[in-house]
Design goal:
Length: about 350
Amino acid sequence: MPLSDQIFESGNNDTSHTSQNFGSTPASIPVPAEVPGEVDTAIDFTEVEIDAELAAPLIEPSMPGVLTLDPTPIEGRLRRAALSVPEETSECGGFTLFGRRIRSLLYTTDVAVIKNSNADAIFAVYPFTAQPAITQALLTVAECPVFVGVGGGTTSGKRSVQLAAVSEMQGAAGVIVNSPASPELVEQIASMVDIPVIATVVRIDAEAHAKVAAGAKILNVAAGKETPAGLCALRQAYPNLPLIASGGRSSLSVRETIAAGANAVIWTPPSAQQLQADMMRRYREAEQAPGPEPETAVFDPIAAADVNPLESARADVPIPDELIARVHNTPRCCQKPNTNLEFFFDDRS
């Protein structure tokens, strides 16, 4: 008798026996003994030990939406020689202006320097009467917010208010008033424009607090050697008020300014003439010692500005008129060859 028939009969016998003992048990289903050829076999690897190095994932998992590595910086072939602000400015907490974070401000009105810098904003004040044409030129080349000066010293009163209104219409991100500006002038400008008014203070006194009460949204602390102490005092009085100050040229002075309570640092870059002089020096050295030419010029702001005529200039104090007159009236043979003002008034060409 074939094996399948034996299994079938055995199944019938078992079923009848089971039915007698358990009347509710259904009949068994006959199963053929042949195994179909299309059945896939599977191997159980649960008992197999795999080396830990082979079992580790090739890519480390990360949290959703978080990359383990920073994206590759995007640089241009011709714009890699940007003038970078000190790296210490990234340690600032910054302040938010119209949704943009401001940590560093570049103190210059040189359009070439502004165009090739990576500062978060431009601090454009100059020792002349504020003019809308200059503001428009700066706004044309800048790729970041521009804070422009509207007077407060020589230029004041109604003219400063009008300059502030025109600056806002041109696209300025904020207006700066000099330290001699009265709290009343700050209040008039603040009531006229919808952009922040930056009030410069040289000492922490009742007038500085009055400027805050008058509507100044940001304070520029320019107290010289007393700047860190002034920042600390203002930070205690106004925990949420944005404070900015000049950070000097050294990394230590920038960190001291930040530690004193500054939200953003004003940095004075070397001039375009100093950068050009540094570039020509490197070109001459390359001619004397031929070698592979660099792909692009790399500016070293510190090396290029060993003697920076703007190093001691504060962002809020213009050059006194009497000092300008003395330079013009003094015979050149009697002038000191290293006078800083010769940088501005040298007409030997």
